[in-house]
């Protein structure tokens, strides 16, 4: 019988096995610490952003790198014409005041619509878009989607609906290098967002899904038809109280 066989049969763990086990636990411990640090860090970041307006986002940095520059003019939600949040609710998220961050009915409807080959459209809520715009990067991927879901849960529970809408209206891209509905209103209509007609609000809301490709002023084709549809639905949002959580 060899020494190795004798050691194994005597109940002792071989040195190689002990080394592999030790390495596994060290790696697992390190990963656990990284996850814990991320959870605590993201929580603190969301709490801070509840009171401090985000100074810049990754999307804005991308525009700076590409040489577009960044134009943004923060306006508190209390000063933004109420027609504007009604327009984005009509366009982007009719159940904004009812859901807790995720509209599963809209996700299923988007999946069925996209499977049928019709115009591709996502089921992301305003809360999800806000989480992405403020804390993450544009584009897809499971990692980005997972992080988006985590931050969505945090802002829903820490910020509340009114703060989510305020941040969304101020960081959403409304044109190349233009961020927020106030900067968009000044760019397209030569006045700030404190006074907006239903048509103006609808035109900006129609731009939001593809701000680098759609025209905010004198829109044509699909963008114009979409804007007309949003204009008609603004009254529904108002009359049905779909923006009640913002009052």
What can you see in these coordinates?
Helices cover 61% and strands 3% of the residues. The protein is an all-alpha fold. Strand 2 and strand 3 form a beta hairpin. Helix 6 packs across helix 7 and helix 6 (126-135) packs across helix 8. It is elongated.
- Average residue pLDDT: 89
DSSP summary, beta strand count: 3
The ordered H/E elements are HHHEHHHHHEEHHH
Radius of gyration: 24 Å
- Gap from first CA to last CA: 83 Å
- Largest sheet, strands/sense/barrel: 3 strands, mixed
Based on helices, strands and strand pairing, what is the structural class? mainly alpha
Helix percentage: 55-70%
Flag low-confidence runs: 3-8
Give the strand content. under 5%
Strands side by side in the biggest sheet = 1-3-2
Which of globular, elongated, flat, extended, rod-shaped describes the shape? elongated
Task: Enumerate how many helices there are, as a single number.
Answer: 11
């Amino acid at each position: 019988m060899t020494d190795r066989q004798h050691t194994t049969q005597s109940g002792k763990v071989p040195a190689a096995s002990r080394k592999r086990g030790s390495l596994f636990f060290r790696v697992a411990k390190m990963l656990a610490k990284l996850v814990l640090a991320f959870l605590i860090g993201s929580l603190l970041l969301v709490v801070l952003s509840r009171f401090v307006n985000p100074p810049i986002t990754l999307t804005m940095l991308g525009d700076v790198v590409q040489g577009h520059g960044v134009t943004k003019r923060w306006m508190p939600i209390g000063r933004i014409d109420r027609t504007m949040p009604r327009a984005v609710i009509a366009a982007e998220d009719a159940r904004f005041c009812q859901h807790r961050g995720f509209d599963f009915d809209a996700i299923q409807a988007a999946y069925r619509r996209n499977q049928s080959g019709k115009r591709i459209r996502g089921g992301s809520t305003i809360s999800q878009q806000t989480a992405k715009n403020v804390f993450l990067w544009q584009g897809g991927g499971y990692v980005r989607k997972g992080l988006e879901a985590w931050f969505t849960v945090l802002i829903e529970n820490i910020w509340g609906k009114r703060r989510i809408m305020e941040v969304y209206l101020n960081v959403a891209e409304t044109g190349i290098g233009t961020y927020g509905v106030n900067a968009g209103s000044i760019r397209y209509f030569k006045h700030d967002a404190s006074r907006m007609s239903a048509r103006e609000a609808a035109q900006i809301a129609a731009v939001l899904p593809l701000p680098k490709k759609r025209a905010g002023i004198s829109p044509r084709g699909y963008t114009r038809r979409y804007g007309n549809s949003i204009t008609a639905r603004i009254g529904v949002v108002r009359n049905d109280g779909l923006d009640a959580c913002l009052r």
